[in-house]
Amino acid sequence: MEQLIKVTNLSKKFGKNQVLNDISFEIEKGKIYGLIGHNGAGKTTILNTILGLMDYEGEIQVLGRDPYQERSELMQDIAFISDVASLPRFLKVQQLIDLVADIHPKFSVEKMNEYLQNSNIKFQAKVKSLSKGMLALLHLALVMSIDAKILVLDEPTLGLDIINRKNFFKNLIDDYMHDGRTIIITTHQVDEIEFLLSNVMFVRAGQIILNSEMEDIDNRYKQLIVNQDNVTQAAALKPVYQDRQFGQTIMIFDGLNDKELFGLGDVTTPNLSDLFVALMQQ
After folding, report:
1. What is the distance between the alpha carbons of residues 156 and 32, in angstroms, rounded to a whole number?
2. Distance CA 193, CA 273 (A)
3. Distance CA 39, CA 23 (A)
4. Crossing angle for the helix pair 93-103 and 132-144, nearest 10 degrees?
5. At what angle do helices 162-171 and 132-144 cross, to 10 degrees?
6. Where are the alpha helices (DSSP H) in 186-261?
7. What is the mean pLDDT of the segment spanning 264-280?
8. pLDDT per residue over 224-250, tens digit each?
9. What's the Cα-to-Cα distance from 224 to each of 191, 271, 277, 278, rounded to whole Å?
10. CA 74 to CA 59: how far, in whole Å?
11. Of 82, 79, 54, the residue nearest 68 (C-alpha)
12. H/E element holding 213?
């Protein structure tokens, strides 16, 4: 598989605060990566270094370029949605579309019109008159109308209601994922994106504690709802996480198979949000 991004020994400090600590990973073509972590874990800093928005220690190659030194050239092939929609409020929607079309050579006005045709956004409305949800929807439509090789999404659905969030993720799969495009996405709505991810990375305190293909998670992690008579026996197998919910003891194991857990309770694969909670508290 073709490698689009290679990060090696990446570190970043803000003053005395070590935000990223010697992390390395690779991003391959045609996949959707979920970058998941608590606020302050370092997710946005990782994205900003990849985009060339700040300096760093270590080495980053994005599409064969140094993002900090060659950012203007790199932005021809990368589209980015930040967690805050920063749009010029004094323009009308149509004026904003015309402006982006003049600035970015790979922006499609036709695609933009398709994204907005079923929305309540009027082309002659001023940006400042739009609601928070409309602003977020307009920002998403603008960026997704750029024919980029890599799409970077930092909490892209903040401000959207559940219907618009679902429509956005549907469009992401139906309209954007073709011709080997690659997506990196951070979000707090873990359950909403689990179905579309091919790879996941958990970030905790500036380090990547899990970097895995989704199909490998099914083989590696097991969740056990323990029969009460077997709690001591199950605990001896050293779960990475243990909790008690609704009168039941729940454990998550790393590297054990169904045969090793047979007879101790009900064995399933943990969903991504449960695994996130388990590894963040480990």
Report:
1. 14
2. 10
3. 18
4. 30
5. 0
6. 190-193, 214-220, 231-235, 258-261
7. 93
8. 999 999 999 999 999 999 999 888 999
9. 20, 12, 15, 13
10. 16
11. 54
12. strand 207-213
* Residue 216 near residue 198 (C-beta atoms within 8 A): no
The fold for domain 3-205 equals Rossmann fold (3.40.50)
State the pTM of this model: 0.87
CA atoms in the 13 A half-sphere facing the CB of 5: 28
pLDDT beyond 90 at 159 = no
**DSSP label at 86?**
-
Rounded Cα gap, residues 69 and 56, in angstroms: 11
pLDDT at residue 109 above 70? yes
- DSSP 8-state code for residue 270: P
How far apart (Å, rounded) are the C-alpha atoms in residues 86 and 153?
14
DSSP 220-254: HEEEEEE-GGGHHHHHTT--SEEEEETTEEEEEEE
**Residue 253 token pair:** 């194991």
Give the H/E segment covering residue 114.
Answer: helix 109-116
Single-letter amino acid, residue 215: E
Q: What letter would DSSP give residue 126? A: B
Strand partners, 212: 200
SS3 (DSSP) at 227:
coil
The amino acid that residue 176 corresponds to is Y
Dig out the tokens for 259 from the structure: 């045969």
Classify strands 3-14 and 57-62 as parallel, antiparallel or unpaired: antiparallel
Q: Which residue blocks in 197-271 are alpha helix, DSSP H?
A: 214-220, 231-235, 258-261
Task: Tell me the C-alpha distance between 21 and 141, whole Å.
Answer: 35
- Give residue 28's identity as a one-letter amino acid code: E
> Mean of the pLDDT values across residues 102-114?
91
- At 83, phi and psi to the nearest 5? -75, -5
